[in-house]
Amino acid sequence: MVNMMQNRPAGAQLAAFLEGVSIEVMPRTAAKVEDFTAILPENTRVYIAHIEGTPIEEMVDTAKRLAAGGFQVMPHFPARIMKDTAELKDWIDRYVSEAGVEQALLLGGSPTTPVGKLDSSIQLIETGYFDGFKRLHVAGHPEGNGDIDAKGTTTHVDEAVRWKQAYADRSGIDMALTTQFVFAAQPMIDWAERLEADGITMPIHAGVAGPAKLQTLIKYAIACGVGPSLNVLQKRAKDLTKLLKPFEPTEVLTDLAAYKAENPDSLIDKVHVFPLGGIKNSAEYIRENG
C-alpha cells in the first residue's frame, strides 16, 4: 500500500491529502457569500472564527446558516475574550440549542490580556461544559508560541499538549490539533515526529494560508508569530516580479502530501485552510486541487 501511494503522481497525492479539508470564516465574511453550497463540498467542516467584539448573536446566526447548508460547524471558543464561565455556558447553550453544534475549537485567543479570568483552552475544558461534545480541536504550534513560551522554548506548549492528550484518552472525545499556518513543510513534519515520539496520538490538521497577496500573508504571518517558515515569503518578496502575484500553498501542501504518502501513519492527517485572501479564492483553490 505504501509503495502504491509513493508512486502516485504529485497531483494525485495532493488531491488525496486534501480529502476532508476544512476552512474557516468570520460572520462578516460569511455574510458576503450568497450560497456556501455553491463553493464548498457538502459536509465540509467550517470553523467560525470568533474575533473579539463580535456579538454572539452573529456567531450563532452564522452557525445556523452553515448547519442548514449541510456543513459541519465548528465555532471558535477563545478563552481570553470571555467575561466568565457563565458567558461560556451561555454561548455553548445557544450554539447547541439553536444550531445543533457538537464540535468546537478551543483556544486561548489572540488578546494578550484576558477580559476575565479565563486564559487557556485547558481552563475551558476543565469547566466540564464540553464533555458532551462529539469533537474538540485545540490549537497546535509547529513553530512555537512566543506568548506562551517567551524564551523561545516549547516547554509550556508541550506540557499543554500532553495534558490535552490525557483528557482525550480519558474522555473518549475525538480530538485533534489544528495548527497555526506555516509556509514550509519541514517545521510541521519535525513537530509531528517530535510529538509522536512524546507519546501523542491526537491527529494533526495542518494549517496553511489560502491564496493571497504576498503583502497580506507577510502581514498576517508577523502578527500571528509565524516562525522559520516565514523565510519562504521573505525570499519570494525579494523577487519583484512575484510581488503582485497571489501566493498559493501548493509547495507546502505538495511536500506534506508526499511525506504523508511515504508515512501513512504520521500524525499529520488533514489540512485546514486559513482564507487570508478571501474564502472564495481558497474554495476555488480547493476545488481545483482536491
Automatic annotation (TrEMBL):
Q: Output one GO MF annotation.
A: oxidoreductase activity
> InterPro entries under this entry?
FAD-linked_oxidoreductase-like (IPR029041)
Which key words are in the record?
Oxidoreductase
Q: What is this protein called?
A: MetF-like protein
- Which organism does this sequence originate in? Maritimibacter alkaliphilus HTCC2654
